Amino acid sequence: MSRYAPRRPGDVARFVRSEMLGLVVTHDAQGYISTPLPLLAETGEDGAVHTIIGHFAKANPHVARVEANPQALISFLGPHGYIGPAAVSKPGWAPSWNYQLAQFEVEIALEPDQGDAAIRLLVDALEQDFPQPWTPEQMGERYSRLTPHVVAFRAQVIRQSARFKLGQDEDRETFREIVDALGDTPLAHAMLDQAQY
Length: 197
What we know:
It is a single chain. This protein is an alpha+beta fold. 27% of the residues lie in helices and 36% in strands. It has six helices and eight strands; from the N terminus they run αββββαβββααβαα. The longest helix has 13 residues, at 115-127.
């Protein structure tokens, strides 16, 4: 197993749920297109991501692409950043870039009659920590006019890979120096979460 593999079952699902913004990429004879979208991960009993739920605007060219060929790649890039030599005391240490990345090869099924449900699932996930969560009803009639312009989808995961390059190849002292240099940042927290020490 790679030293950069996630350390625990469920790490990838937690990562995707915390990042939420995925990049959906498709390809055909016209070339590549990509769309960043907030997405929800569904997991199985094993804790692995099995399905990804989202919605496209009907005007998005991905809708026609997916109707013709449902294969896509969805990527999530998490905390990342440059680690310069000034952060460490080890002589001859070279700069690095730390990051978290999860990628899913998927088959997308469009669900035109599930637009409202997909939006509500997303809103519930995004608003759950607010003291007074927003609901679509607060939009009034405008909400019912907007929902026909979206197409929900469910993406079945065919293959997945994750690379959490977060200092696992550093010795304990260098790792600690990097974390200290980063301070109270998402990247430092991600490194500590995956630390081997």
